[in-house]
Amino acid sequence: MTPPRTVLLTGASGRIAGQLLPALRDAYDLRLVDVKDTDRAGEQVTGVEIFDVLEAHPDSLAALCEGVDTIVHAGYVTDGAARGYASERSNVDMTQRIYDAATTAGVRRVVCASTNQASKWYEQPYYQGRIDRVSVDDYPRPDSFYGWAKVAYESLGFLYACGSLGTQLEVVQIRIVAPREIDSADFRDRPLQHYLRDIAGYISERDLQQLFVKCIETADIRDRFGVPFQIFYGVSNNARTFWSITNAREVVDYQPVDDSEVKFAEQIAAMVRRG
Questions:
Q1: Residue 170 β-bridge partners
Q2: Helix axes 205-217, 15-27, angle to 10 degrees
Q3: pTM (2 decimals)?
Q4: pLDDT digits (tens, 9 = 90+) for 66-122
Q5: How does DSSP classify residue 128?
Q6: How far apart are CA 178 and CA 212, in angstroms?
Q7: Which long-range contacts (CB under 8 A, 24 or more apart) does 241-244 make?
Q8: N- or C-end of the chain: fewer Cβ atoms within 10 A?
Q9: Interval 40-51 mean pLDDT
Q10: Phi, psi of 31, rounded to the nearest 5 degrees
């Protein structure tokens, strides 16, 4: 029997990691790190080692990555302040350290938890009815420093994947859109289109898990130029669509099973009647 892959999960006490852990624990030999070992509710997260990726000595970071097959990078630095350039620069620096340590340690692949914020500006023409689809091939257009940092993750990731640094690190960026159960009450005093935007961007926990696992497992993620680099949007199989998942279906055989139009049908009907 082939031993399970060793997967390092950063930000292991965070919200996205909490959704991924049930699937990852079943499939892999995990190393879990974060700057705290409790989740947002204050509950202990089993197996988390207190480790600061941003501040750790390079030797300690290299040792952490030794023998790792894949790094799932969900770590995020927040200082409680507004997400300005300085605070987001720390997240870019941390991600670069992950890429660099992975390359040094011979890690096969890094899968980053990114966000649709890398292209969020496109929602403006979407709301205006001027476009009805955005894909990863569209030029990234962030409208905040938070989104800019995610674009920086992506361009750095390509740099480490393309081979110009002497080796090719396989890199996947998952632009997660709305990884939460949607409650129409949260949109009571907001325009209907804001609610329908989240309906279009919804991703269920099991679809999110499937997408990450397939990004870990798929053997060949090379693009059409032979570079092992991909960006995927993270949404379910929703009838209302804006973020294209065509390339995720083609490259890693992502087959989402949930549809927000079905799951929230009664809620949607009430919201549309309200107008």
A1: 109
A2: 60
A3: 0.96
A4: 999 999 999 998 866 667 898 899 999 999 999 999 999 999 999 999 999 999 999
A5: T
A6: 15
A7: 241/133, 241/200, 242/126, 242/132, 242/133, 242/134, 242/197, 242/200, 242/201, 243/116, 243/134, 243/135, 243/175, 243/177, 243/200, 243/201, 244/133, 244/134, 244/135, 244/136
A8: N
A9: 96
A10: -120, 120
Amino acid symbol at 59: D
Q: 41 to each of 145, 187, 195, 222, how far by Cα in Å?
A: 27, 24, 26, 39
**Contact between residue 147 and residue 120 where contact means Cβ atoms under 8 Å apart:** yes
* Residue type (1 letter), 185: A
d(CA 272, CA 275): 5
Instruction: Identify residue 231 by its one-letter amino acid code.
Output: I
Given 3.30.70.120, 3.40.50.720, 3.20.20.370, 3.40.50.2300, which CATH number is that of 6-182+203-257? 3.40.50.720
